[in-house]
């Protein structure tokens, strides 16, 4: 097996911290992956991994070699992408925020598949902050502000937002006429952890952006539950308009503070800084960026 292939195997083991998971990703026998890493260590005359029964971790020498491998593999992949007619192929693993993806990606995904028929896509849906390297995920599609992380974030679209509440909620608490009135109201909280941060709704005014901190009767961790809480009269929400257009038309949710502009919700795709970005991921990210620019 050539040196490039050995580096690819080594990098995948380093990313997955497992020979078995790396073998599954690469569609190779586990014994082949193990033997190739051993041959690489023998040729380099260093130990690249500390192996235990539970996990595989890089040694100091392995960390240094891993960083160099990423750069070399990226340059090789880029060269092949630019100067050959090789079509990207293999497994592409994507983690997505489901509501946005169902509306704006899935109905159009066949155009990408028709263009790259040798790429097999696995799509996993959730809102949590996935560990891309550990879980073998190539990229993540997320809606909303992003937490600080070591991931590279590329904004691919923006969505117009609205402030909404149910008629029953407004009967109980009254209708706010300006952002300052919201201090007497409840917002539906949204969070992916158990910390009890105050809920914040944001508005744009001539004086700048206003963030209003509000109490919450309930905090949820998914877009579906966020919507359900508003429909259940548990508080005020801010969401992209497309998501609840039908509920607004039916009168189940009422648009509030129409005279106050909202910051658009960013849609971003994220991928690791430390992971070699494959041609599969690159063409998908480029396709998604171009696609969303035409419909959002």
From TrEMBL:
Pfam families associated with the record: HTH_1, LysR_substrate
Any GO molecular function: sequence-specific DNA binding
GO BP annotation list: DNA-templated transcription
Keywords: DNA-binding, Transcription, Transcription regulation
UniProt keyword annotation of Transcription regulation present: yes
Segments forming domain HTH lysR-type: 1-59
DNA-binding listed as a keyword: yes
InterPro entries linked: LysR-type_TF_proteobact-type, LysR_HTH_N, LysR_subst-bd, WH-like_DNA-bd_sf, WH_DNA-bd_sf
Cross-referenced SUPFAM superfamilies: Periplasmic binding protein-like II, Winged helix' DNA-binding domain
CDD domains: PBP2_CrgA_like_3
Family affiliation: Belongs to the LysR transcriptional regulatory family.
Protein name in the entry: LysR family transcriptional regulator
Organism in which the protein naturally occurs: Oceanospirillum sediminis
């Amino acid at each position: 097996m050539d040196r490039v292939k050995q580096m690819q195997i080594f990098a995948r083991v380093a990313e997955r911290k497992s020979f078995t998971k790396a073998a599954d990703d690469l569609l190779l026998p586990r014994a082949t992956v193990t033997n190739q890493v051993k041959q690489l260590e023998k040729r380099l005359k260093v130990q690249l991994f500390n192996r235990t029964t539970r996990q595989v971790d890089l040694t100091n020498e392995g960390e240094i070699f891993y960083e160099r491998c990423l750069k070399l593999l990226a340059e090789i992949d880029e060269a092949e992408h630019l100067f050959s007619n090789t079509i990207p192929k293999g497994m592409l693993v994507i983690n997505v925020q489901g509501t946005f993806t169902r509306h704006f990606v899935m109905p159009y995904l066949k155009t990408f598949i028709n263009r790259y028929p040798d790429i097999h896509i696995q799509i996993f849906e959730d809102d949590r902050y996935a560990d891309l390297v550990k879980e073998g995920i190539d990229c993540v599609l997320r809606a909303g502000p992003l937490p600080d992380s070591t991931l590279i974030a590329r904004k691919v679209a923006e969505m117009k937002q609205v402030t909404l509440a149910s008629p029953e909620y407004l009967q109980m608490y009254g209708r706010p006429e300006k952002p300052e009135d919201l201090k007497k109201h409840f917002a539906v909280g949204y969070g992916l952890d158990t910390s009890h941060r105050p809920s914040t709704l944001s508005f744009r005014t001539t004086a700048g952006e206003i963030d209003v901190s509000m109490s919450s009767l309930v905090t949820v961790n998914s877009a579906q539950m966020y919507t359900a809480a508003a429909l259940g009269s548990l508080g005020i929400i801010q969401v992209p308009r497309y998501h609840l257009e039908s509920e607004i038309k039916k009168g189940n949710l009422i648009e509030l503070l129409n005279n106050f502009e909202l910051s658009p919700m960013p849609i971003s795709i994220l991928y690791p800084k430390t992971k070699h970005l494959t041609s599969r991921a690159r063409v998908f990210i480029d396709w998604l960026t171009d696609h969303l620019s035409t419909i959002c």
